[in-house]
Amino acid sequence: MRSKIPFFIIIPSVLSVIMFMFYVFLGFNHQIYIVHPVTISFFVVITILLFILDSIENLIFRRKLKFLTEEERRKIFEENEGNYFYRLYKFIFHDPKKKSQEVKKIDHGFDGILELDNKLPMWWVHLFYLTIIFSTIYFFSCLFTDFSNPYKEYEVAYQNQLKEIEIFEKNTPQVTVENAFFDQKFVDSGKTLFEENCATCHQSDGSGNIGPNLTDDYWINIMDKNLFKNIFSIIWYGSKNNPTMRAFGQSGEIKGNDIQKISSYVYFINTQLKKPIKNKAPQGKKIIDWDKL
Ligand code: HEC
Predict the structure, then answer these.
(1) CA–CA separation, 262 vs 193, rounded Å?
(2) Same domain, yes or no, for 191 and 278?
(3) Is 105 helix (H, G, I), strand (E, B) or coil?
């Protein structure tokens, strides 16, 4: 007739299925996972209900036994002998007592093959039921919720990344005019940034277009007594005479650390001996020796 699954297996299983459903439909960050009196009492009530169900089932089972014949009753007692683990053991490894018993055989008749119709092991059947429960929950949650939806997961991960970058930038001290310095290692990344932000007006080699040639010794704007800091200041504050050269730093368009890289690139192309072949005509004052300003 039946092999009863004991309550200490049933109750944890049901509770974990409920937990799993919470996770699937609400996500892990939901309040349900915070130890909360409502959550705890919910699970306590469920546990009590399961206990009651279990005892009702036991009552029905015992009543049913009364209406069975002696032979049937003996069979049921034999099947339910020992505790759950012993029965489990019996199913996984062959029951030594049962060895003598006849195994049910199905005769296909036409091909002469005999098929043994053994009972499936209990653990196997239970696992099978579990996969059915799991797959239904999984299937419907995939259909109707965001659970394990790759697009949604990507979106969430992307947003988290953005947040992390924002936090990182907030906590990373940005270079200012006061502590900016030239470094050869910034030149390459500075070139890339220059091409993105400045090349439209100055050409990527700095030879000048709408904006002046940045590779010669002529300067319209003199904001600092140091060549590198002068470049940094112009990019930070923009030109006082001509708003076309806007205040990239002050407006927050480019961060201080990036301006330091761009300035390093401009300083590099301005001080190196190799100059672009085609240049815009000089504008402003010729300054060779910045130290003597
Ligand atoms: C929209 C066009 C434009 C863009 C973009 C631009 N500039 Fe300029 N830039 C100018 C103009 C025009 C001037 C001349 C300003 C003046 O007459 O005072 C100038 C001047 C300068 C000067 C000073 C030159 C001098 O002789 O005084 C530097 C240095 C400079 N730009 C660097 C940059 C850098 C670096 C970037 C990118 C972050 C950049 N510019 C982006 C148009 C631009």
Answers:
(1) 6
(2) yes
(3) strand
